[in-house]
Amino acid sequence: MSPSILEYPVYLWQLLSGFRRKHEEMFAELRWQDTAPILGKRDPLNILDLGNGRLRPQYTFLKSAGHKVCGIDLVNCPEPSVINSLYRIAQYLYTRNLAVPRRSLSNQTLVCGDVAQLPFRPGSFDLVTSVAAFEHFLDVPAVVEELKRILRVGGLVWVCIHLYTCPSGAHNVTFTQIPLVKMPHGTDVWDHLRRRKLPYDVPLNEWRRDDYLEAFSEHFEILKQYCAIREGVNFLTPELATELSTYDTDELTCHAYVIVARKTS
């Protein structure tokens, strides 16, 4: 069961109304709070937006703030198609809601490439940021090792991961509820951790919270880790908690998980 086609008008409304902008602004604010006290006033920063996405929201925010930003994603070299044409319209609708001077978005640096084989020199960046992308990387250890290589000593990684273990973690129930508040009719909550009746539409590594922490700890100093958005607390009955007892409540209900890490050597 894929998200309903009826969600697309909702998605369009979210773009026009500014809902998506406010959601992304929250992540931008969290990143600033977590990194500014450490990076100081090095301005502009050399920043890599890892897995920038089709709408490129965080790339846009960072460019508008005057930083030198490079985005890397396979979607940066799309082939002509109806879907890609629609996304170009969506990009326009998204950016028109932003108080961003158009000149700040000129000379965009968007690289089409493999995040596990980054085409950058060692020590090229002060900060690597990634929002809702790591869950799609199928070789996370290789990506993390590459981040260590391309960051300068003292540079930071700020990643926000849509955890697989949350109710919407399989990316197959909805794309308009952020966070998930209501399950689609006839859909079992946490199906992907239980019966796995619903197919996946996107690649997912199925990593858990502690898997990410271990991978980053091998190469970086973990400065901070926390849950930025929760969902599913209202779904977690005592019966479900017992059935899913191999997972703790925190990872079952964390939609957006943030890791802040520093390269020390």
**Rg over C-alpha atoms, rounded to the nearest angstrom:** 18 Å
What's the helix-strand series? Answer: HHEHEHEEHEHEHHE
Count of individual domains: 1
Shape: globular
Distance between the termini: 47 Å
Average pLDDT score: 90
Percent helix: 25-40%
CATH superfamily: Vaccinia Virus protein VP39
Q: Number of DSSP strands?
A: 7
Question: Could you say what the CATH topology is called?
Answer: Rossmann fold
Q: What amount of the residues lies in strands?
A: 15-25%
- What CATH architecture would you give? 3-Layer(aba) Sandwich
Query: What does the largest sheet look like?
Result: 7 strands, mixed
The order of strands across the largest sheet is 3-2-1-4-5-7-6
The CATH class name reads Alpha Beta
Topology:
Elements: H1 7-17, H2 19-39, E1 46-50, H3 57-64, E2 68-72, H4 82-96, E3 110-111, E4 125-131, H5 140-150, E5 151-162, H6 209-217, E6 221-230, H7 238-243, H8 249-253, E7 254-262
Parallel strand pairs: 1-2, 1-4, 2-3, 4-5
Antiparallel strand pairs: 5-7, 6-7
Helix pairs in contact: 2-3
